[in-house]
Amino acid sequence: MTIYAHPADTITNCGGTLARHAEAGDEVVALILTHGGRIHPNKYAEEWRKDDPDAEIVRADTAAIIANKKAELERAAEIVGITRVHTLDHDDELAAVPEDLVDQTAELIARESPDVIICDYPLNAAQTANTHTTATMAALAAIGRAARLLKNLDGTAEVNVRQVFFTSYPVFVTDALSLHGSRNDLYIDITPVIAKKVAAMDCFASQGYDGLFARKLIESNNGEHGRVAGVNFAEAYVRCYNETRSLLPLTDAALAADPLTRHVGYSQINLRADFPTG
């Protein structure tokens, strides 16, 4: 289950990971907390600047803009394999965590009972002027609330989320000593599904996320994470909870990696040539 602030967030931040889980047969659910009607209004703002603007676009009210954003998300969700999309339609300039948002989010966590939740890395857990941070604070509060449900009082038993993955610590680091232990501690290789992420991002034309920007974002962000991970494209995560294992983990990717030549292997794909904007 993903919990994000705005309609496009679940695709830009972890769309490749979701596509890989969907292909593996996992159920994927997306929860979007705000309507996104005012965030990144490129299609509408740019039309106003024209000498002869399209009347239908410039007359679009809030409801029409929100409906268009939801339609873009639905198309993108189908591409990456998201099973269900829930939208709560709170204001997209959310600057504080309201109780009703926590209750609604906890109710959906209880209904869907996810093993894993993915949400934004909170830029600053004490400062909520950034809507993405507010969304994550709401998600964490809701996870705690869902874990304290009692069947005799609430009509549903407690739901215990097994792991929370924050997407992309906002710096690029490669080892535990670079920033005194603070780093992305898990990478998902999204190279096999990169076409799906490009196509899904192309759905968000109203906010200018399609075309060249989609390819630039994936090249620069997922490409740099891929360089660190030793693959063409990766999405980065920070695990919220510790993990308990029987043995010290060593991944197949780590065993297969050749430090001498992997820089050649992760430089093979040309997004703009392979996925032209038309």
In helices, the fraction of residues equals: 40-55%
Number of helices: 12
Shape: globular
What is the typical, i.e. mean, pLDDT?
Answer: 92
Sheet/helix structural class: alpha/beta
Largest sheet: 7 strands, mixed
Strand order of the largest sheet: 3-2-1-4-5-7-6
Instruction: Give start-end ranges of low-pLDDT stretches.
Output: none
Q: C-alpha Rg, in Å?
A: 20 Å
Beta-strand content: 5-15%
> N-to-C SSE series?
EHEHHHEHEHHEEHHEHHH
Distance between the termini: 33 Å
Number of strands: 7
Please specify the SSE layout and strand pairing.
Blueprint: E1 2-4, H1 9-23, E2 29-34, H2 42-48, H3 55-58, H4 62-80, E3 84-90, H5 99-112, E4 116-120, H6 131-147, H7 151-154, E5 163-167, E6 186-189, H8 194-201, H9 211-229, E7 234-239, H10 252-256, H11 262-265, H12 271-274
Parallel strand pairs: 1-2, 1-4, 2-3, 4-5
Antiparallel strand pairs: 5-7, 6-7
Helix pairs in contact: 1-4, 1-8, 4-8, 5-6
Can you give me a brief rundown of this structure?
This protein has 278 residues and is of the alpha/beta class.
Write a structural description.
With 278 residues, the protein is α/β, with parallel strands linked by helices. Helix content is 43%, strand content 13%. The protein contains 12 helices and 7 strands. It has a 7-stranded mixed β-sheet with strand order 3-2-1-4-5-7-6, sandwiched between helices. The mean pLDDT is 92.
